[in-house]
Predict the structure.
Amino acid sequence: MKMKKPKIIPLLIITGLIIYSLFFYKTPTQGCTFYSMGGIKTEIKIFNENRSVARDACELVKERYEELESMFSTYRAGSLVSKINREAYKQPIKLSDEVYYLISRSLAISLATEGYFDIAVKPLLDMWAQAVKDKTLPSSSKINRTNKISRSKYIQLDENARTVYFLKPGMQIDLGAIAKGYMADEAKEILISAGIERGLINSGGDIVAFDVSENPVPFKIAVYNPHTGKSDEVISITNGSIVTSGNYSRSYSIQGKEYSHILNPHTGTPRGGCKSITLKASTGLLADALATALCADPNYVMGKNLPKLPAGVEVVSYFKD
């Protein structure tokens, strides 16, 4: 899981894709750019549509992102997730359909990845963000205390009542490592419903592409190699998502030592060793969450020690430090 940079933008931003260079189609004629979830840049590229159709579709996407951010964002005191973090230990909190869905999917992915994806790590993220600000490492006892409450197993989800309850005081959740992918998936569905046949959504580095025309043509997306500084590999994708997670462009210095922004949820400490990992999946939600989990897992080696990944998920590249 990933540490946040205090008061600027969430360090859930997944970097590593250079995408706008190799398209078989002509340059996109329409699109829009906006920011959400504490400063994440989202770019919508719409191919071969007239201006008014593209403009109206972009407005629908922006409205949906605003609606979802009002539920998911930890940067908004009035969001549903912020309310959960304040009150869910005191009483069960009624959830929207979207928040219930993301929490339930998060718990399932946490089990599938042996806990290397965990939305309950927000206390750890906050602890390390404060350490960066103070330029002082947290004590081992503080890490251990915080780590004990940063566990999805203490999240109680009631399917019938559609509520969530925390079993430990001090628990908090952060949906950022799965929400970006989900929101990009939502944008895709909105664009298709608006009659757009070919488009691309880049939500803070989470790429969702689609071509539902009669004669679809794959997008060509270049993947950055952090060791060479070049885009050494080009991936074809027609309908699906590509996400890169890594520590090569986001790290912190505390007392003269560099630390990764990606946390190992089992130890509560920054995870080194994963320069970058790129996943290809059917949805942005899956690619987003699983890229985070595999980069956080110190036992992962390309092609070995794989968790039980869903069908259709492919690890495209993996670079060690």
